[in-house]
What we know:
Blueprint: E1 9-10, H1 34-58, E2 62-69, H2 75-82, E3 91-95, H3 101-104, H4 110-113, E4 122-126, H5 135-138, H6 159-178, E5 181-189, H7 192-204, H8 214-220, H9 223-237, E6 244-248, H10 252-268, H11 279-293
Parallel strand pairs: 2-4, 2-5, 3-4, 5-6
Antiparallel strand pairs: 1-6
Helix pairs in contact: 1-10, 2-10
Protein name: Polyphosphate kinase 2 family protein
Domain Polyphosphate kinase-2-related: 33-267
GO molecular function: kinase activity
Amino acid sequence: MQLDLSHFTYTGKGDFKLKDWDNDIPKTEQGLTEEEIRAEIAQDVQTLAAAQSMLYAQKRYSLLLIFQGMDAAGKDGMIRHVMTGVNPQGTTVVSFKQPTAEELTHDYLWRTRVAFPAAGNITIFNRSHYEEVLVDRVHPENLLAEHLPGIDSVADVTPQFWAQRYKDIRQLENMASRNGIVVEKFFLYLSKDEQKERFLDRIEQPDKNWKFSAADIQERRFWTDYQEAYQDAIGATATKHAPWHIIPADNKWFGRLIVSKLILARLAKLPLAYPAVTAAQKAGLHAALAELTQTD
């Protein structure tokens, strides 16, 4: 299946405006059926599993997948369906909630930095360090609990403060990239109307009641503020080595298809291979084979 993946990727070139991006299936791809999409994702999962096997054996590169989005954007389902075929031995999913008291005693990037993947592994962030320029941007009063020099009140939080945090994040991701960590960032772009429908679904269907949180409704009141925060964060932190992918999230299956294709496209650019066997290792294999085939 041929898709123009560049349509969903922003590398920092030119101005970034969320309104210019799709949150539903683009007109050029509306002929795809859910059955076709599911079948294609199933094939992609197999290809991803094979690539992960080499990634894990080679232990030179690692993959960090960052998923961000508004409540009900489908982050959990995205991770479950796209990553279902990978080996759990080399995969970690980290969900970042409200910072703990211990985490607040460290710098704001500490808790995510220590969770970056080891060589050969895939780590998936369900939310991430970007919460520090999203939730904290919408609710700057949160910063007062971080014991920051010069931040004694909300009035001390200036545009320069956020510009410095964007710079910190770019530098962190650049350092990770130089050390073999491939950083891929996905914003699941959900419309406000679709979020409303998903919230109603959680309330009206008993088997989904557990998903509903009153806090989600409270945060929905800040929808415009969050859209501005995402727009600024993506625009300031997208780079060639750590791009942002804007994924249409109103249609869950189409979004999952695009994410699977983008991950495979990125892995395809890496020189992945199983470690070469040296002459000494081959000799050891032949010796072991001879011993195992001898009659006891």
